[in-house]
């Protein structure tokens, strides 16, 4: 039984029903529909904290999906999982791969910035001002890009950029 068939959450059930309807009428190849099904199951597993299952579904979706735009979201979600698990280098790799396919993905830019900011905070705790500055500068670079794409989002990042003199 696919994950979407055993989901008890009302919103997830509604999403599943709508997605199934769209899939029936959408002029897509069998592989595209199958890729979407795996992606959908991956999102469902991810929302329940079942990261290993989500990754399995996302990796299958990546093998089947040919559309670069759709692949970017699969890659982004894989990055989210690795970031949630504290595997920041892997997360950065997947966020960058997503951005290579879709430059207009502000959430990936934001998440990259968050990782660099976190690394900057850790370096500050260890009294390493050079690494702190480098990480904070990188965070600022990615947050500025994210804000250019989504000016009404990332208010906390905008405030941080202003208060640290990194808004330029």
From TrEMBL:
Stretches forming TPR repeats? 35-68, 35-68, 72-105, 72-105, 120-153
Keyword Metal-binding in the entry? The reply is no
Query: What domain of life does the UniProt record list for this protein's source?
Result: Eukaryota
Role: Seems to be required for the assembly of the photosystem I complex.
The similarity comment for this entry is: Belongs to the Ycf3 family.
Protein's name in the database: Photosystem I assembly protein Ycf3
Annotated InterPro entries: PSI_Ycf3_assembly, TPR-like_helical_dom_sf, TPR_rpt, Ycf3/AcsC/BcsC/TPR_MFPF
Record's Pfam families?
TPR_1
Gene3D superfamilies listed in its UniProt record: Tetratricopeptide repeat domain
Does the keyword Amino-acid biosynthesis belong to this entry? Answer: no
Q: What is its main location?
A: membrane
What HAMAP family does this protein map onto?
A: Ycf3
GO BP annotations, alphabetical order: photosynthesis
Compartments, as annotated in UniProt: Cellular thylakoid membrane; Membrane; Plastid
> An example Gene Ontology cellular component term from the record?
thylakoid membrane
Q: How does it sit in the membrane?
A: Peripheral membrane protein
Ordered alphabetically, the record's keywords are:
Chloroplast, Membrane, Photosynthesis, Plastid, Repeat, Thylakoid, TPR repeat
């Amino acid at each position: 039984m696919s994950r979407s068939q055993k989901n008890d959450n009302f919103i997830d059930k509604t999403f599943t029903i709508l997605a199934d309807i769209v899939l029936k009428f959408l002029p897509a190849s069998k592989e595209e529909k199958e890729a979407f099904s795996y992606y959908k199951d991956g999102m469902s597993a991810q929302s329940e904290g079942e990261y290993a299952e989500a990754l399995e579904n996302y990796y299958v979706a990546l093998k089947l999906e040919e559309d670069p735009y759709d692949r970017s979201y699969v890659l982004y979600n894989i990055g989210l999982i690795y970031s949630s698990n504290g595997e920041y280098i892997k997360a950065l790799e997947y966020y960058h791969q997503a951005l290579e396919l879709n430059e207009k993905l502000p959430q990936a830019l934001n998440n990259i910035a968050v990782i660099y900011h976190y690394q900057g905070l850790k370096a500050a705790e260890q009294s390493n001002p050079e690494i702190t500055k480098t990480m904070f500068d990188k965070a600022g670079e990615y947050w500025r890009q994210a804000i250019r794409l989504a000016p009404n989002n990332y208010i906390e990042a905008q405030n941080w950029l202003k208060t640290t003199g990194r808004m330029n």
